[in-house]
Here is the input.
Amino acid sequence: MTSTLSDYSRLCIHTITTKPWSLEEAVTRYSAAGVRGITVWRQALEGRDVVAAGQRIRDHGLSIVSLCRGGFFAAATKKSRSRAIDENRQCIDEAVLLGAPLIVLVCGATPSQSLAESRRQIAEAIAALAPYAAAANVRLAIEPLHPMYAADRSAVNTLSQARAICREVGSPAVGIAVDAYHVWWDDRLEQEIAACGRENRLFAFHVCDWLTPTADLLNDRGLMGEGCIPLRQIRGWVEDAGFRGFNEVEIFSDRLWKTDQGRFLEAIKAAYLAHT
Ligand code: ZN
Here is the structure.
């Protein structure tokens, strides 16, 4: 294991993690706390000048790690699928304006068709977008989601499925975001992460924890160390696969959003050093 655990130089926080804060407050607070990276959720940009927002982030010494999120490609009608591709082109344009080098893709699914058909549509859409992304110098990261979301959020549920789509698309602009919350249960996780590294597809690494019981399928993620994910082991696998990017804290939690966000930020920093 090659982890460097002594500092925050690779700590990134997703704006959604401190959802009660505006983008401006998050930027000020993260920067003051010594956090070095930020992943911006698109809703945090609503009503703002995106170029100015990007400049403000950089002026505070933060690296923009990615823009969250694009995707939702699977749909029953061709018209809906074309619209999704158009929307993702706009997302790529927004990443360029912001200065974000990467977009995370939640690929989509619809219960009215098979998972295989959804995956076929996802590959087709990403193949259509890849040249546009590459020309804009923006990379696209497929994020496999936990199978509890297979019916309606993503038909891509394993790193193996994400790698298959990457191979099919065949663009160096398309890779994978490994989110520990979604893939920690996979008995082939170590080998799959290694394969992502060998294939130059390991674009991002997200962390939080799995709570038992999980009270809400979407908004009950835990702070690192609160649950059962072996985060340090997984981070070791990710680093052994050659990844040297940010460790991104991405927590959706109604429970934690209700707490004082300044104290929560301190808890994130402590949990990052102790459990990530
Ligand atoms: Zn994630």
